[in-house]
TrEMBL record:
One of its GO terms (cellular component) is nucleus. This is Uncharacterized protein. GO terms for molecular function: 3'-5'-RNA exonuclease activity; RNA binding. It comes from Diversispora epigaea. SUPFAM superfamilies: R3H domain, Ribonuclease H-like, RNA-binding domain, RBD. One of its GO terms (biological process) is nuclear-transcribed mRNA poly(A) tail shortening. Gene3D superfamilies: 3.30.70.330, Ribonuclease H-like superfamily/Ribonuclease H (3.30.420.10). It holds the Pfam family CAF1. InterPro entries: CAF1_poly(A)_ribonucleases, Nucleotide-bd_a/b_plait_sf, R3H_dom_sf, RBD_domain_sf, RNase_CAF1, RNaseH-like_sf, RNaseH_sf. Signal peptide: none annotated. Belongs to the CAF1 family.
C-alpha cells in the first residue's frame, strides 16, 4: 500500500490498526546515499569507529522511501498475514515561514541506482511526506518564540501604527465604495509593509489577494472562483502543515513490537537521526537511546552470518540470496504459510520488478525472518556457533546433550504450531533471542554492535601487528625494506601515521619485534655501522623512523577493552560528581565536632541541611582518589590528544553499490597481492587525518597498553 502526502491522513487509521495487531514489524529504507568516500568502511573498524562513520552519513544523507510491513500470525489458518506499506519521504513543508528548510546530500551512484529500479523522483518531490524530528522542532519553536519576543520588545511607534490603521481604513472604503478590482498602497518602509500584511491576513484573508511590490503592496479583489480555489489550497496546506512522518515512528515506539531489518545498522541510525533526535557522539549513548525506544531489533543478516548451519545452507547472505534459499527445503516444509492481506494489492510475491522498493523489501525481510527463525527452532542445536567468542552464555533449558557435543530439543513438536507456542518461542527462546539486538557490522572483524550488552570482539590474529607513529618520511618502500626479513608481508594503511603489518609466514610471526622500533636490533642494522646501512640509505631509512611503535593484535584488542572500561568509569564518576553537585545545590549541611546533634544552618532565608565534617583521622575521604595515568605527548608540543571520543580509522574497503549482493567473507584479512609498481609507489591510499605520536623511550610494552587504552586514532 503506497502512502503519500495526499492520502496520509486517510490511511493513517489503517496503519495504526496494522501496527496494533502485529506480532512483529519489518523495516527497510531507500537513501540518497550511503557515505562519502572519506568515510567508507574499513575492515579494522571497531564498533565505535563504525558508528562514527555511520553517524556522519546519517547527518548528511536522507531516507526518501520508508518501508514498513507488519506480520500477524493467524492461529486458525496457521499463516502469517503480511501488510506492507511504502512511504515516500521528502523534507518539503507548505508553511514557508517556519524556516525549516532542510539541506541534504545526494550520491550520484545511489540516485542512478534508484532510477534504474523505477524510483519516481517526481512523486517524491510532489507527494513526499514531510518530517521534523524532536531536536529540530525544539529549535524551530525557539526561533519562533525569539521572533515573537523581538516583536514584543520592539513595538511599532505611534506614527507607524497610525499609518497602518489609515491603510486599513482606505482598504475598507475601497471595498465598499469602489468598483475597481485593484488598489495599490504605498509602503515607504519594510516595517510598515510587514505590519500591513499582518493586519491584512487577520482582516481580509479569503476576500483579497495581496502582492508585494517595490515600496508598495498591490491588493486585488477575489472572484468567487478564486475564493473557492484559495479555500481548497488553504485546506490542503493546512493538512500538509500538520503532516509529520514522525507520527509513524511514534506508533512504532508506543507499540513496543519487535522490529526486523536486514543489515540495518545504517537504517536504524538514519531513522533516529531523521525522525526522532540528533544522534549522540558515543556509541554507548546511542545504544541506550535506541534500546530505550525499541525493545527488540532483529538483524536477519546477523542471524544468517552467525548460525553455523545457516552459513552452510546460505553461503551468500544478501536479502535476495536469503529469499531464494528459504523458499526451498528444509525451510519450506517447516514454516507456516506467509500471505499478503487481500487489501494490499501493490505487491505480488517474487515480483522482481518491485525489488528495492522499500515496502517490498520490508515484506521479504520479514518473510526471511520467519523462515530463518522457524528453521532454528527445529534444528539440532550445536553447542558452539562459528562466532562462539561472541556469546558468553548458552541456555541449556529443555535440552539433552549427546556424545558428539550437539543438543536436541526434547519438548518441541515438529508439526504445525499454534499461535501461543510459535510466536512466544520465536521471541523468548534463548536459541533465538541470543541473536537479537545485535546489529551486523558489514565486512568488519568486529561482527556486531550489541544494543543491550557488550559488543563482540574478534579472535586473536597473531599474524597482525599495529604499526603506529609512522613519520612523514616513511613510505611504502621504506616499510617493506625495514620488515622485509619477515618474508611474505603486507601493509594495510589506516591513516598517514598508522597501518597494519600482516605476516603470512607463521614461522616468522614470533620474530616480529614489539615496542619502539629504534630500540630493536632490527633497526640497528640500518644505522651507521650496521650491516644494512647502505641499503637503508638507498631506500630512505632515517633515524626518525626509530620512533615507529609496533603492537600485537591482542594488545590492540586489550587496549580497546580497557578503553571501554575507562569510559564506563569516567561516565560513572561524572554521574556521581553531578549527583554530589545537585545535592550541594539543594543544601549544605554542617555538624558541630563537639555536638553530634544535627542543626540546620540558616543564611538569610536559605536553610541548609546538616552534614558531618570528617576529622583528620577519619577515613571518610577514601572515595577521593588521585587519578593517575600514562601520558602520551603529541609531536611538536601539541596538546595531548588522548580523548575517549577519538576513534580508529581502518583499512579502506570499497563500499558496495546499493542493491549489490553483499556477502561477508570469512577469510582473515581480505588481502590482494601488490604489484611491483604498487610496491614502489610512495604511499598507499591515505585518509586526511594525520595524528602523530611520540613514545617515551622508557615506556615498556605493558606501559604502552596503559597509555594506548586512552588513545584512539582520528
Amino acid at each position: 500500500m503506497e502512502i503519500l502526502k495526499k492520502n496520509f491522513h486517510e490511511l493513517l487509521p489503517t496503519i495504526q490498526e496494522a501496527i496494533k495487531d502485529a506480532d512483529f514489524i519489518a523495516l527497510d529504507t531507500e537513501l540518497t546515499g550511503l557515505n562519502e568516500h572519506i568515510e567508507r568502511i574499513k575492515s579494522f573498524d571497531d564498533p565505535q569507529s563504525r558508528y562514527t562513520k555511520v553517524r556522519t552519513a546519517a547527518n548528511k544523507f536522507l531516507i526518501i522511501q520508508f518501508g514498513l510491513c507488519t506480520f500477524t500470525y493467524s492461529e486458525e489458518k496457521n499463516i502469517f498475514i503480511a501488510r506492507p506499506f511504502n512511504f515516500y519521504i521528502f523534507p518539503a513543508n507548505a508553511d514557508k515561514r517556519d524556516q525549516n528548510d532542510i539541506c541534504f546530500m545526494c550520491s550520484g551512484s545511489s540516485l542512478h541506482f534508484l532510477m534504474n529500479c523505477g524510483f519516481d523522483f517526481n512523486k517524491l518531490i510532489s507527494q513526499g511526506i514531510p518530517f521534523i524530528n524532536n531536536t529540530d522542532e525544539v529549535k524551530l519553536s525557539q526561533r519562533k518564540a525569539d521572533l515573537a519576543q523581538r516583536q514584543i520588545d520592539n513595538p511599532p511607534d505611534d506614527d507607524t501604527k497610525s499609518y497602518v490603521e489609515k491603510v486599513m481604513e482606505n482598504l475598507e472604503t475601497w471595498l465598499k465604495n469602489s468598483d475597481n478590482n485593484k488598489l495599490t498602497v504605498d509602503t515607504p518602509t519594510i516595517r510598515q509593509k510587514r505590519l500591513i500584511f499582518q493586519e491584512f491576513r487577520a482582516r481580509y484573508k479569503g476576500v483579497l489577494s495581496a502582492e508585494s511590490k517595490p515600496k508598495s503592496i498591490l491588493f486585488e479583489r477575489l472572484t468567487d472562483a478564486q475564493k473557492e480555489k484559495k479555500i481548497k489550497i488553504e485546506v490542503e496546506e493546512a493538512l500538509a502543515a500538520s503532516l509529520n512522518f514522525r507520527t509513524i515512528i511514534e506508533l512504532l515506539i508506543e507499540s513496543k513490537k519487535p522490529l526486523v531489518g536486514h543489515n540495518c545498522f545504517l537504517d536504524i541510525c538514519q531513522l533516529v537521526q531523521q525522525f526522532w533526535m540528533e544522534l549522540p557522539e558515543k556509541l554507548r549513548e546511542w545504544k541506550k537511546l535506541v534500546h530505550g525506544l525499541f525493545n527488540t531489533i532483529i538483524d536477519t543478516k546477523h542471524i544468517a552470518a552467525t548460525n553455523r548451519k545457516l552459513q552452510t545452507l546460505i553461503p551468500k547472505n544478501g536479502v535476495q540470496d536469503i529469499l531464494q534459499i528459504v523458499q526451498t527445503e528444509p525451510f519450506e516444509s517447516l514454516s507456516p504459510k506467509i500471505e499478503l492481506d487481500p487489501r494490499f494489492t501493490r505487491y505480488t510475491f517474487n515480483d522482481e520488478s518491485q525489488n528495492h522498493e522499500a515496502g517490498y523489501d520490508a515484506f521479504i525481510t520479514g518473510y526471511n525472518f520467519i523462515r530463518l527463525a522457524v528453521f532454528i527452532l527445529h534444528e539440532k542445536e550445536e553447542k558452539v556457533d562459528v562466532y562462539d567468542y561472541l556469546f558468553n552464555e548458552y541456555s541449556t533449558e529443555n535440552t539433552n546433550e549427546n556424545n558428539d557435543g550437539e543438543s536436541f530439543e526434547t519438548d518441541f513438536p515438529v508439526d504445525h504450531l499454534n499461535e501461543k507456542t510459535l510466536v512466544k518461542r520465536i521471541f523468548t527462546l534463548d536459541k533465538l533471542t541470543r541473536f537479537y539486538n545485535k546489529l551486523h557490522l558489514l565486512r568488519s572483524d568486529f561482527k556486531f554492535a550489541c544494543l543491550d550488552g557488550e559488543d563482540g570482539y574478534p579472535p586473536t590474529k597473531p599474524n597482525g601487528f599495529l604499526v603506529s607513529n609512522i613519520p612523514p618520511s616513511c613510505n611504502q618502500v621504506s616499510l617493506y625494506t625495514l620488515f622485509g626479513d619477515f618474508g611474505n608481508i603486507f601493509f594495510q594503511w589506516i591513516d598517514d601515521t598508522h597501518c597494519w603489518l600482516i605476516v603470512k609466514d607463521d614461522k616468522k610471526v614470533n620474530k616480529v619485534p614489539k615496542g619502539k622500533l629504534g630500540q630493536t636490533k632490527l633497526f640497528s642494522l640500518f644505522l651507521e655501522g650496521g650491516e644494512k646501512y647502505q641499503l637503508g640509505q638507498e631506500k630512505g631509512i632515517t633515524k626518525e623512523m626509530g620512533e615507529i611503535f609496533i603492537q600485537s593484535w591482542s594488545n590492540w584488542i586489550k587496549a580497546l577493552q580497557d578503553a571501554e572500561v575507562e569510559d564506563e568509569k569516567d561516565e560513572k564518576d561524572e554521574k556521581d560528581e553531578k549527583d554530589i553537585c545537585e545535592n550541594q545545590c539543594h543544601g549544605v549541611t554542617l555538624m558541630d565536632e563537639d555536638n553530634q546533634d544535627n542543626k540546620n544552618i540558616h543564611v538569610g532565608e536559605i536553610e541548609f541541611e546538616p552534614f558531618s565534617i570528617p576529622r583528620d583521622d577519619n577515613t571518610s575521604w577514601e572515595h577521593i582518589t588521585e587519578n593517575t595515568s600514562d601520558n602520551w605527548t603529541a609531536r611538536d608540543n601539541a596538546d595531548t590528544w588522548a580523548n575517549e571520543e577519538d576513534i580508529w580509522t581502518k583499512k579502506e574497503i570499497n563500499w558496495p553499490n546499493e542493491g549489490d549482493d553483499i556477502e561477508d567473507k570469512q577469510d582473515n584479512w581480505d588481502i590482494t597481492l601488490l604489484s611491483d609498481s604498487e610496491t614502489l609507489s610512495m604511499r598507499a591510499k591515505r585518509t586526511l587525518s594525520t595524528p602523530q605520536l611520540v613514545i617515551k623511550e622508557e615506556e615498556s610494552d605493558s606501559e604502552m597498553n596503559g597509555a594506548f587504552k586512552k588513545t584512539r586514532i582520528e
